C-alpha cells in the first residue's frame, strides 16, 4: 500500500527498511486513543469552520464505525500499514472518501502520536492507581486484624525489638501510599494536551487547542510546540514511579519468601498461589513472590532503555522517540500484572501467629526494654547497656530467654531487678509502652490505622 507521506518520493521504500521503520506491530494498542483524539480534532475543525458540517459528520460516523469494527473483531489491524495512525486514516478514507482526507488538516503525526501516548499513559496511570489502592485496602484489613500479633522486628536481618504484624505491614502501607501519590502527581503533570503543536511549530489554521484539551479531559494545552512533540518526561517519570513501586513489591516479596521458609514458618502460602517441585514432593514454593521479585528487573530495564534513547536528542522530534513505546508498554503491562496478583496472594496468606510470637520471645527482642527497666531504677544507661549485654551472653549459654530466668539469676547481674521486671519485659508491655506516633503500641497503631482508613476513603 502507498504511504501517506509518499508524494515527495520517486521509489518505494526498501522492504527491510519498511519493516525496520514500521511501528504498527506495537503501537496498534493505541487504536482507541488515536480514534478518540481524531474525533475531537474533527469536531474542533468543524467548530472553527475549517471543515464543513457534512465532512465533520462523515468523519465522526466513519471513526465510530472503525472503532466498533476493531473492538468486535470485524476489522483487523494488519502489518501492511506503517503505524496505527495510517491504519485508521486509510480505513477512514476507504469508507467515506475525500472527507477522510481532510481529517489530518492542521495536524502532524508528531503531535498526533504525542497525544495518543499521553492519553494511553494517563489511562494506565488510572488503572495502576486503582490497583495500588486495592492493595492498600488489603494491607489495611490485615493490619486491623493483627494489632496484637506479636513478632520480632529486624535490623540487619537480626532480631532487634518486638513489634506487631500490623506495625510491620504498616511500613509497606506507607511505601505504597507514596507510590500512589507519586503516580497521582505524575498524572497531573502529564495532563496537558499536545495536539495542535503540529510537526514542531504549530499551524496557520485557527485551531482551538483549549477546546480539544477540554474535550479530552486535559487540564490545558501544552505551552511550547517544540516541547510538545519532543517531551517524554511524563513517560520517564511514570516508569520511574513504576520502578519504585515494583522495588517495594520486591522487598515485600523477599520478606514473604523468608517468612515462608522452614527456618521461619511465619506464613503459609495458599495452595492456589504456590507451586510444587517436579522431583521433591514435599516442596511448596512461593513462586508468585519470586516472579514479582524477578520482574522488577524488566521495569528497571524499561526505564533505562527510555532514558538512554532520550539522552542525546536535539529538538524537536526524532525517530528515536518511536522507541518510547515498547519499554513503556512493557513496564505498564508488567506492573499491571503483578499488583493485583500480589494483592490476592497476600489476602490468602495464613500468618502463623504463635510461631511469630515465640520467635520474638526467643530472640532477646526485649533486651532494650530490660535496659530501660534498669534506667528507670536509677542505673545510668551506659551501665545498664553493659549489664544486659552480659545477661544476654549468660542466657545464650543456657539457651534461655531473659524472661525465663529467675529473679535470683537476674539479681546476680544487678540488685536493681525486682519482681516487676517480668511484666516490664513481656512482649505486650514492650510493644504497648511504645506510644510515639508511628510506633507499634496499640494506642499508636489504632490512631494510625484510623487515619489510614480515612485517607483511603478520601481517594477516588
Characterization of this structure:
- This protein has 460 residues and is mainly alpha-helical.
- It folds into 3 domains: 13-105, Fumarase/aspartase (N-terminal domain) (Fumarase C, Chain B, domain 1, Orthogonal Bundle), CATH 1.10.275; 110-145 and 176-351, Fumarase/aspartase (Central domain) (Fumarase C, Chain A, domain 2, Up-down Bundle), CATH 1.20.200; 359-458, Fumarase/aspartase (C-terminal domain) (Ribonucleotide Reductase Protein R1, domain 1), CATH 1.10.40.
- 62% of the residues lie in helices and 5% in strands.
- The chain contains 20 helices and 6 strands.
- The strands form 3 sheets. It has a two-stranded antiparallel ribbon.
- Helix 3 packs antiparallel against helix 4, helix 11 packs antiparallel against helix 12 (287-310) and helix 15 (367-376) packs across helix 16.
- The chain is elongated and about 100 Å long.
List keywords for this structure.
single chain; 460 residues; mainly alpha; Fumarase C, Chain B, domain 1; Fumarase C, Chain A, domain 2; Ribonucleotide Reductase Protein R1, domain 1; 3 domains; two-stranded antiparallel sheet; two-stranded parallel sheet; 6 strands; elongated
The separation of the N and C termini measures 46 Å
| CATH architectural group of the largest domain | Up-down Bundle
Helix content range:
55-70%
**Order of strands across the widest beta sheet?**
1-2
Annotation, overall tally of beta strands: 6
The dominant shape is: elongated
What are the secondary-structure elements, in order, as H or E?
HHHHHHHEEHEHEHHEHHEHHHHHHH
Uncertain residue ranges: none
| Rg on CA atoms, Å | 31 Å
- Derived structural class: mainly alpha
Beta-strand percent range:
under 5%
Q: Work out the helix count.
A: 20
CATH class of the largest domain: Mainly Alpha
Q: At the fourth CATH level, what is the homologous superfamily of the largest domain?
A: Fumarase/aspartase (Central domain)
What is the CATH topology descriptor of the largest domain?
Fumarase C, Chain A, domain 2
**Mean pLDDT, nearest integer?**
94
